[in-house]
Structures are given as structure tokens and as C-alpha cells.
Amino acid sequence: MSLRTCRLKSQCVLYSIVLAMLVVVFWKVYIVNNSMHTRRSLLEPIDDEFLFAGPPIDVFIFEEHHEAIPYWFNSSSSDQLTEKKGLTLIHIDGHGDMGLPQSFRKFPYLRWPQNRKELDFYMQANDVFIMSAAMSGMFSKVIWIWPLWDQKNHEDKPRDLVQIDIGWLMVDTLIPKLKRRAFCFCYKSLNPGPSDTYTVRKKDECRRLPTSLENDNENYSEGVVIDRKMCNTEMSFYHEEIREDVAADIFLRDTEYYKENGVILDIDEDFYGCTFASRPLLNAGFTDKELDAFNEIISVILCPYNAKEEKEADSMMSLLLDDVISADCLKKKSDVGCQQEEDHIYDKFKKILQTSKKHLTCGKTPIKAGNPEEQLRKLLHTIMTWNQRQLSAAKKVGFCSTTSKARGLDMTKGSQFHFCMGANTPNRTMVREHNTTISEINSRTTRLKNIVKALKPNLLPNIVTLCRSSRDGYVPREFQNKIENDIIESLKVMSPLQLHFDEELLGGKDGWLRSKGLS
């Protein structure tokens, strides 16, 4: 029965009341259910990353540490660079990298570089790029977070602060009465206090680079101490060293002090450990002298220009080693048979170098080195004398350029194709070796995550630069992929990331050992 069909007035009124009551009941049920649903949503845990996530932070992954310079200066072309002065650099590394660069007439000193070409003066080596960038005025503070395994180089102090003053002086040269400009720096050690209050702890000390007259003197490996009056200081910045296990608490407590005009976060993978890539070769029985002799031979035969050609040259050398391993001449008593094997391998690779791999060969061979055919014969004859253990070690270490030819000043960075053994051997370095383990890597990653969390949200970096240090042989190559993945996962705690892999990475994006199928 409907309103249209009700005949008695009382029936219509009663029906309307019942219908209204049903509407009210259904409406209340709807409101209650919706309210309960909303309340449940409000009481559910909030995803912090969703709530605070801003635009992704650019992470630039490259090989040698001086290659951070173009990214710091936002250089994608030769156009004029945008000034960014007074920043804080947070430098997480197994090494301080605070060496002085060489002075050149066009070095952008006390001014912002005008174009990409001028940045080459800041990229002289992998331990002078921070001082170079500081000379432009980019940094007011440089914070080095160092690993626990480097404690011996820091006495018993978990934290140390110095003021660094940079300047110049005139020094003698090999030419009598001719002097040239050299950079110098002075520091005074300070006690870190609240905010920007400091107390001087010890007297000033100043140093400069050794001149050409002093370079052979081992006493000057860390620079020459000079009187402060000799160094014409013209700029300064603060440099603080903080041990990794106390860094997070310090950043949380002193956020405003470190913030300044912006932050650059710079991480070196050798923060996790520092090894010598030459170890497998030395353990297989090679001597430093034998390694030097072989490197001298191969460097006048193969001259790959970039990372792609470098991988191509390494693959060719790996095939050569496979042929020598198969020949196994050291087990054969017949010299005639071995000579035939050597001749066959020589003819095969001579043809390869004259045809499909000609682009990998050196353009001009030094006269004293002999012609390319003689050098190839000498190279192969040397390899034929290696035992199986040495051949396997050579194949594992591989062959690569000592530095990227596409980066830095030609006058300071000579690149050669060698054993991929890095820049140091145990007997020829002052760099401290530290062999790490999976357990230690995991512990260090936990501390790194705590540091990164402490940067969020008030010390979020403008960019992150991540250096592999695989070409120079520092990062433990067998753990390089895990270390890099751990660092990237740690950075995700801070913000969404946009990863950029440099085209000149040793072994490409996959890394050296993985690209060779050894990891």
C-alpha cells in the first residue's frame, strides 16, 4: 500500500511516520559505519616515507673521487656555472682527501670557475679535489666522518676541529732565480664547543707542496712545514673530523650549526675497508719489479681511450691468458713444442690487433720500446713463463687503465693500460690497509643508516656523490657490489633517490668483478 492508494487519512499518516523512522535508522547506521571506518583509518600507522617524501635526491655514482667535481658544480656542459657558496660538505670516507693541488696560471683561485674546462684544474688527483673546491668558496665547513678502523690515525679523539687557512707563496724551481706560485695552508686546532664557540688547543702549523727540487725526498711526503709568515693566507673554512659511531648524535644535536646554506653528502665506498688490488698478484709470486716490467710492456701496446674500450681490451687479454693456460708449456719438456705454441698464439693475436682490435692499440710507440710486433712478442714470451697460479691471478685481477683518460688535466694525469692493480702496493704506500668482513660491513651499514636518519629532515643534502674507488684499488672488490647496495639502501631512509651511473665506471654499472663474471 502506498500514499497514492491509502484511502483513510489516519492510514496515510501512520505509514508516513513508519517510513520516516526507517529512513532515520538506515541513515544512522550508515553514519556510524562510515565513522568507524574513518576512525580505523586515522588510528592506523602512518608511513613516514609517504608523509615526508619530497622530490627525489640525485645520487651520482662514479669511479675516481676527483670526478665528484663536475657534479658538485652542476656542470653538464661548458656553460657558465651557477654559484653555490658557503655549503657544508659531509664527507664519509676511509681517507681525509685534504691534499693541496698544484698551482697553474689559469687555476680558478678565490673565484668561481667560469666553465667546465676550468673544473679540470680541480680534478688533478683523487685526494686534492676538496681543497680545490674550497678555494672557490664553495664550502664553509667540511665534515669528515671516518671509520673506526682508522682510529690509529686519530689518536684517542672521536672528534677534532681545525680552522684551515689557504694561501700561497713563491718557491724555487729547477731554473736558477725562477720562482713559481705554490699553494699553502695553515691550520689551528680547536676544541669543538656549542654552536660556533671554539677554543684554540695548539699552535698553528703551515705546510706547502714539495717543489721539483724536493720531490725525491721521502721526508716531504706530507708536504713541507713552513713558517706561517711565509703563507699569504686569503681564505678559510672549518674542517671537522668525527668518528662514525658518534656522528649521528652530533648531527641531531647541532643541526642548525651544520645547516649553513646547504649540504652536499659525499661517500666513498672505501669507508667500509681499504685493500690493495695487487694482493692476488703478489700472493701468486709476482714481485713489484716483475709487475713494473710487465706494465711497461703492455702500456705501449694497448691504449684504450674510455671504459668501453678498456673492457674490450681486458676481454682480449683474458682470451690470450686462456690460450696460454691451455698450452701449459711449463709442464712440457719440449722447448720446440712450447715455441710452436707461442708462435701460434703470437700470430693469432697479432692478426687480431691489426684488424678487429686495431682501435685499441697505441698510436705512436716510443722509439726505445721497439716496434709493436717486438713488444707483442716480448709480452707473450713473458706471459709464457708464468705458472698456472700466476696466470689465474692475472686473469682475476684483469687489466685496466690507471685512470680515466677522459677526466682531469693531461699535464698531471698520465693514463696507461696496466694490470688492474690500483695505485698502491703494500711496499710502496703510506695508505693503511684494512680487510673487512660481511659481519663488519653489516655493522657499518647500520651506523651509516643512523647517520643518514640524523640528516632528515633538516640536513637533507642538495645532492649525493658516491665514489666507488675500485679503479685505484682501494675498495675491497669482492665486496664492492654489496657495499654499494648497502649504501644505496641506507640513503633511501632519507629520501626517494634518483640514481645516475657514470659512463666511465670501471666495469660499467655492474662493477669490475661482476662484469668479468667473477662475482
What's the short story on this structure?
Helices cover 35% and strands 18% of the residues. By secondary structure, the protein is an alpha/beta fold. The protein folds into two domains: 52-163 and 230-276 and 431-515, Arginase, Chain A (3-Layer(aba) Sandwich); 279-419, no CATH class.
Folded structure, characterized:
By secondary structure, the protein is of the alpha/beta class. Helices cover 35% and strands 18% of the residues. The protein has helices at 9-43, 48-52, 69-72, 129-134, 244-253, 255-259, 279-283, 288-298, 307-327, 335-354, 372-384, 388-397, 438-455, 480-492, 512-515; strands at residues 57-62, 87-92, 139-146, 159-172, 179-192, 198-200, 205-208, 224-226, 232-243, 263-268, 399-401, 417-419, 463-467, 497-501. Strands 1, 2, 3, 4, 5, 6, 7, 8, 9, 10, 13 and 14 form a twelve-stranded mixed beta sheet that branches. Helix 10 crosses helix 11 and helix 13 packs parallel to helix 14. Mean pLDDT is 85; it is low at 1-9, 29-52 and 194-202.
CATH class annotation of the largest domain: Alpha Beta
Low-confidence stretches: 1-9, 29-52, 194-202
Number of helices: 15
Element order: H for helix, E for strand: HHEHEHEEEEEEEHHEHHHHHHEEHEHEH
The count of β-strands is 14
CATH T-level fold name of the largest domain: Arginase, Chain A
Percentage of β-strand residues: 15-25%
Radius of gyration: 32 Å
Which structural category do the helix and sheet elements fall into? Answer: alpha/beta
Overall mean pLDDT score? Answer: 85
Into how many domains do the coordinates divide? Answer: 2
Report the CATH architecture of the largest domain.
3-Layer(aba) Sandwich
